RNA sequence: GCGGGUGUAGCUCAAUGGUAGAGCAAUAGCCUUCCAAGCUAAAGACGAGGGUUCGAUUCCCUUCACCCGCUCCA
């Protein structure tokens, strides 16, 4: 499938538009049109219903260590700036970068170091990305090459300093970049703010600086104690949230896949440390099954465990649910959802302060003054189990899904081309979306076969009987084949047609989008039939 | 942020330094008894800004967006 065709269909039929299009658009932002908003709502509602409201806390779900509870939360997009300092986002998302004009590579300003050296009457700073002994060797090697010397002439290089961070160097004109052959190819350090900054209060001073959240998860962690104190949940339990998040992606690309404003569906599941591995396995499989059940059933969907090198600083186990989007190179997959075992990292961070890894564990990162670099709340976020009389910090399993990425994957998977016979029996090309009925924006369309003999009136009665329960669509214009084709193109799974026989025996035809099969149903049983086909509503 | 490519109607494509055409789609009506048929009518575009020119959609510059490759991706 060519992505252009799907993008074109999305725009033509009102699924997705470029944001601010009449002003030329805005990179990394997309709007959902009348049909797109229904699709995305259906995805979010299926998630919320399946994960939260229809969850039965009285039974042990298949594959789960025991029964558990689920509750929801909806917190603000702007939170106290300290939230992001303790979570680690502030440090990781706030970098100065330098670019090399010659090698086209980009480096973190604070991760490049080097040494001053003089030779042949010139003084240059030789930079490297390496560390320690390796950095000394690398800089020597590059200096020899730069001055056109052999290894045996190394003593002609007069090194002036030990390794210095590039941040100590003010003038880049004498800097030899890590991958450059000439001096002065590095740009001035530029600030990359991966979090959107804003100002709370009418006066936009730095004291009011805040950030739009880059993930919804932290709002759950900072409300952990509130939920414990105000509901009767007990560990193990999960808190779910759906909401917008914002990241200043350096390269927004691939349609809505990498957007700067996007919507997440996240669960933070709190459990006893001794059971956390089993819960991780449960959620990993449960979430994978969820996508399968909604139609991402092909080999384009996969569940992939992260390799140890890939694991984030906080994680002791992560699996990605990935989809082979058509815009990616063959064999490449894009992330739909990550299920991470986060241990007690987050709750501890919000108690004690920002943590860093040390000797296989975590310690509070200290600033130059010996105090926590980013102090935590100081609040007690431990959990007391009054059955076992045990107090502990729960471990967290985080299934974090992208609603927009899910919508895009469902659209890609649904896009189909085939041929159907026209009125003369000749094959005619057809484009249709094979969306799961739960996700389809329109559940059924109701047509009179022709606009006479009382058929429109009969069809309208059926339409009105269905409308309170399902998003249905009425159309009486033009040839019926054209109306079918239009519904196929937006993924409507069923069409209901009133024809000449309706007046005789009170039946109408149901037509299936994927098979074109038709069968007769009593007009007064259309709601029942649709409920059987789509699910209760 | 770098390099390459592309911007004309909803879509696909024309033409032109001097009034921008078509097919399909969409809209209204007629006709139509099951898969985009037919007839009629009306509607609809040079991504944005600047420059050169008597005149720019066309030539030049800038910018914005999209696509491809780098780079980045907690």
Give a written overview of the molecule.
With 537 residues, the protein is an alpha+beta fold. It has 14 helices and 30 strands. The strands form 9 sheets. Strands 3-14-15-23-18-17-16 form a 7-stranded mixed sheet. Strands 6, 7, 8, 9 and 10 form a 5-stranded mixed sheet that branches. It is globular and about 105 Å long.
Which features does this protein show?
537 residues, alpha+beta, BirA Bifunctional Protein, domain 2, Rossmann fold, seven-stranded mixed beta sheet, five-stranded mixed beta sheet, 14 helices, 30 strands, RNA-binding
Q: Give the C-level CATH assignment of the largest domain.
A: Alpha Beta
How are strands sequenced across the largest beta sheet?
Answer: 3-14-15-23-18-17-16
CATH topology of the largest domain: BirA Bifunctional Protein, domain 2
CATH architecture descriptor text of the largest domain: 2-Layer Sandwich
Summarize the structure.
By secondary structure, the protein is α+β, with helices and mostly antiparallel strands.
Blueprint of the fold:
Blueprint (H helix, E strand, L loop, with lengths): L2 H10 L3 E3 L11 E3 L1 H20 L15 E4 L8 H7 L1 H4 L1 E6 L6 E3 L4 E7 L2 E7 L3 H15 L11 E2 L4 E2 L9 E2 L13 E4 L3 E3 L9 E3 L5 H6 L1 H7 L6 E10 L14 E11 L4 H18 L7 E5 L12 E6 L10 E10 L1 H8 L2 E4 L2 E4 L18 E3 L4 E3 L2 E8 H12 E7 L5 E7 L10 E5 L6 H12 L5 E3 L5 H10 L4 E5 L1 H6 L1 E6 L5 E5 L3 H9 L3
Parallel strand pairs: 3-14, 7-10, 26-27, 26-28
Antiparallel strand pairs: 1-2, 4-5, 4-11, 6-7, 6-8, 6-9, 12-13, 14-15, 15-23, 16-17, 17-18, 18-23, 19-20, 21-22, 24-25, 28-29, 29-30
Helix pairs in contact: 2-10
This protein binds one RNA strand of 74 nucleotides through helix 1, helix 4 and helix 12.
């Amino acid at each position: 499938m060519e992505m252009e065709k799907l993008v074109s269909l999305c725009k033509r039929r009102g699924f997705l538009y470029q944001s601010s299009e009449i002003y030329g658009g805005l990179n990394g932002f997309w709007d959902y049109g009348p049909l797109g908003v229904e699709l995305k709502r259906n995805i979010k509602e299926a998630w919320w219903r399946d994960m939260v409201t229809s969850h039965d806390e009285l039974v042990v779900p298949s594959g789960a260590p025991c029964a558990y509870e689920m509750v929801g939360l909806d917190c603000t997009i702007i939170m106290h700036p300290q939230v992001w300092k303790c979570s680690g986002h502030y440090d990781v998302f706030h970098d100065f970068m330098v670019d090399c004009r010659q090698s086209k590579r980009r480096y973190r300003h604070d991760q490049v170091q080097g040494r001053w050296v003089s030779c042949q009457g010139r003084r240059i700073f030789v930079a490297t990305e390496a560390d320690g002994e390796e950095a000394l060797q690398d800089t020597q090697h590059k200096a020899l090459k730069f001055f056109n010397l052999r290894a045996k002439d190394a003593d002609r290089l007069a090194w002036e300093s030990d390794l210095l961070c590039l941040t100590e160097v003010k003038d880049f004109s004498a800097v030899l970049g890590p991958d450059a052959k000439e001096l002065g190819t590095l740009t001035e350090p530029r600030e990359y703010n991966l979090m959107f900054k804003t100002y709370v209060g009418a006066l936009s001073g730095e004291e009011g600086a805040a950030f739009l959240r880059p993930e919804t998860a932290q709002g759950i962690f900072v409300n952990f104690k509130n939920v414990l104190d105000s509901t009767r949940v007990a560990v193990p339990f999960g808190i779910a949230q759906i909401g917008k998040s914002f990241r200043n992606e350096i390269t927004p690309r691939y349609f809505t896949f990498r957007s700067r404003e996007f919507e997440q569906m996240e669960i933070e599941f709190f459990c006893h440390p001794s059971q956390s591995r089993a819960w991780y396995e449960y959620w990993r499989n449960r979430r994978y099954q969820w996508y399968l059940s909604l139609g991402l059933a092909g080999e384009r969907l996969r569940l992939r465990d992260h390799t140890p090198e890939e694991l984030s600083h906080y994680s002791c186990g992560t699996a990605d649910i990935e989809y082979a989007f058509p815009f990616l190179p063959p064999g490449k997959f894009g992330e739909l959802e990550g299920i991470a075992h986060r241990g007690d990292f987050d709750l501890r961070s919000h108690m004690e302060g920002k943590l860093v890894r040390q000797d296989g564990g975590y310690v509070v990162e200290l600033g130059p003054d010996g105090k926590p670099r980013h102090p935590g709340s100081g609040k007690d976020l431990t959990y007391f189990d009054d059955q076992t009389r045990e107090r502990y910090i729960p471990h967290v399993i985080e299934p974090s899904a992208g609603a927009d990425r899910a919508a895009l994957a469902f659209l890609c998977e649904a896009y189909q081309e085939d041929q159907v016979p026209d009125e003369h029996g000749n094959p005619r090309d057809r484009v249709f979306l094979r969306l799961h009925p739960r996700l389809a924006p329109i559940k059924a369309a109701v047509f009179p076969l022709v606009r006479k003999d009382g058929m429109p009136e009969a069809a309208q009665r059926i339409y009105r009987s269905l409308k309170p329960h399902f998003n249905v669509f009425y159309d009486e214009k033009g040839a019926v084949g054209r109306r079918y084709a239009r519904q196929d193109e937006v993924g409507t799974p069923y069409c209901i047609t009133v024809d000449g026989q309706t007046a005789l025996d009170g039946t109408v035809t149901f037509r299936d989008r994927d098979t074109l099969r038709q069968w007769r149903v009593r007009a007064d049983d259309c709601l029942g039939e649709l409920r059987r086909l789509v699910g209760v509503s």
